[in-house]
């Protein structure tokens, strides 16, 4: 594919444009070289992309950029400067799904400082890569909203995470969900979602959030 041929030059260009991205990529590269003794079924760049994505220094910046890029094709083309990382993560997820097979799971993710607009029956998507926890391992304490997601689209990334102890499962930004029900009885608001399909175009409704503490949805 054309993107595969263009990838090395594109990655180098985007690393030069973003000092933080370059520093995180270098750190992830060093970490991956230490892990290499265990072998891998991903390419080195795919594995490094996953490591970089899970690092705190890049996570919020990248997710905010992905969320913004999804608003239009022009925004993606002209103002999104993580095309190489996005491509590598997508390829890594595809490869991991081939290796791991389809795993239908209950996943959870908590968010602080954001209230979400959603009604049962709505079709929504997060609009960013989402690293989630298995429901049975999830601690909801301190969260304002918790998403419980039923999906078969996630891939286990613990072997490629900067913090393997979290046992994270990654879902793609184009994955869509139907709001099953919402529970607001004490503790965090619970939004229960079931997988409804995938949309890689720009016409699907965003999962909209009202910001209450100075963060933007996409940073979660």
From TrEMBL:
Pfam families: ART. Its EC number is 2.4.2.31. Keywords: Disulfide bond, Glycosyltransferase, NAD, NADP, Nucleotidyltransferase, Signal, Transferase. GO terms for molecular function: NAD+ poly-ADP-ribosyltransferase activity; NAD+-protein-arginine ADP-ribosyltransferase activity; nucleotidyltransferase activity. It is an enzyme of class 2 (transferase). Belongs to the Arg-specific ADP-ribosyltransferase family. PANTHER family: ADP-RIBOSYLTRANSFERASE, GPI-LINKED NAD(P)(+)--ARGININE ADP-RIBOSYLTRANSFERASE 1. This is NAD(P)(+)--arginine ADP-ribosyltransferase. It comes from Vireo altiloquus (Black-whiskered vireo).
